[in-house]
């Protein structure tokens, strides 16, 4: 190829043309982000930037954006933010396009325009929209009911349409016998508690590569199921009570209580309280009318269940009828007792004077019979019992206690059965009534009878009439007569005659004149010591006077002939007739007389007694009547208390007592001292002592104890006693340990011998 030669002017023109072409190629517009086509999720915000690239940016006009319809997109007015607007950044030759929330209608071709040295510049971008995965009905917490079909809802929208699959606890779920995957959820057939857990609903849009998961927690609700319990509850009238009702269910059920007979909701009824969360029904002050059927209803979101409970109100018996009755002797007597309560009161009787109750049916050989019955009375049960006593006698009279009892408690009430009987004087004394020297006396008559008797007095077969010396007081059942016997003709037999509707009785009273007693028949010496003498006295007959009350003695020394100077000693009847503080070796004269209400009788013949010489004291006597050979079991293991009477000193005062005790054994029926070395003698320096505690005895050991009194003339004969101490250990160690120690000593000895 041949090149044509070009001149200088041509060269200059070519250089300018090349420069112009090169400058045009160096300036353009760029849209960021750089992509000719962009896909944006509906609802998302979009920002596009139009940027001028030129050697001299100042020569580029401010870019402008046009929408898919070719309309210029304006900048936002101050204080506004429209859906689509632009924003200029002149310093950087930038123009920003803002779409706050893109919709499918906003999709299309967006272009940016500018000029550079009058050369037009432009760039464009295509915006496509799609719908992102959206959960429209897919609650994160859903609840199914056991035994029913349930669809776990998971509605999801997207453009393009998503595909959905399911997982439970990370394990995939496929359609089968129990699971069916629907477009809007997962159907679970016959829901069980094992279906409880977390399910995952996964949505995928393959065209956009979008993936989303929704974790749904499924709780399986179970309808209330009543726990087994007793169908009958017993509560007591007057007390507070509570009844529980329990049901298993998910969620935990709430409870209501209704009384079946009235259909009352007990939550709003006085005296009742219902805890709807625990099912506890509380009664405040139970009433008898609260018995009957109660319905406990348990409800939760899965369903409802109820149970019926029979409430028995235990009503403590109340005795409302028991009347006192009267019946004649030899006839039949009845007492009827009625009581109400629930359950039916059991009624029984007992006589208050006897702790044992009568049994239902025949008692006392059929003479006493108890019959019982019961029947419904309103909201309680009425029971009655009748005690029937045939052939009544006086011992049947008295208080009878009716006892009514049931499971709620007991009640008692007394009724009196009065047995009518003819008058009797069984408790009246039959002793004569005495008077002397014209003294006024009372003749008293008390007649026992039901009904009360009237009393009349008779004397010498005629009705007694009042005179100045006879006064009658009372006409029954108590009556008495005062008599002043100035005339001996008033002495004699008086009769008290008592009469009532059942008969008559009389009581005889001897009114006799009294005289002093006759002389003592016999007085003889019985026991004598150096300083005392005891007599045996036989008194006179009491036919002519009141009973002997005492005996009196006079005594003097034999050398004294004047009885007016004698000493006196008086004893009550049947006491020891002992004269003390006499002088040894002296001779005394004694005489005796009897005493009654009238006075002292005549003196008997004197008795002369010669007192013996001084001697050691008499033998002491134990205060209790104890045999010297019998064995006494003591209360204590280490001591025994002696008690005695001070013996006669026989002319010389007692200056001490000697106590000697020795361990003994009984061999061939005889007591023998086991070891004289173990005998202990103790002295008690006191003449007035009457007790002494022997100490230091061994447990479970038999002792012979001697007690002797002493004066300057010597010792008395010993008072003897055999004592066995109680089991135990005086050192505080129980007897079984002492036994164990003894056995251990024996075992130790055997071991030593064996080792040797």
From TrEMBL:
From which residue to which does any coiled coil extend?
none
Q: How does it sit in the membrane?
A: Single-pass membrane protein
GO BP terms: homophilic cell adhesion via plasma membrane adhesion molecules; synapse organization
Q: Which family does it belong to?
A: Belongs to the hemolin family.
Fibronectin type-III domain mapped to chain residues: 516-614, 616-729
Domain Ig-like: residue ranges: 33-118, 120-217, 224-312, 317-418, 423-510
Localisation: Membrane; Secreted
- SUPFAM superfamilies under this entry? Fibronectin type III (SSF49265), Immunoglobulin (SSF48726)
Primary location class: membrane
One GO MF term attached to the UniProt entry: axon guidance receptor activity
Gene Ontology cellular-component terms for this entry are:
axon; extracellular region; neuronal cell body; plasma membrane
Cited SMART domains: FN3 (SM00060), IG (SM00409), IGc2 (SM00408)
Q: Where is the signal peptide?
A: 1-26
InterPro entries xref list: Cell_Adh-Cytoskel_Orgn, FN3_dom, FN3_sf, Ig-like_dom, Ig-like_dom_sf, Ig-like_fold, Ig_I-set, Ig_sub
Name of the featured protein: Hemolin
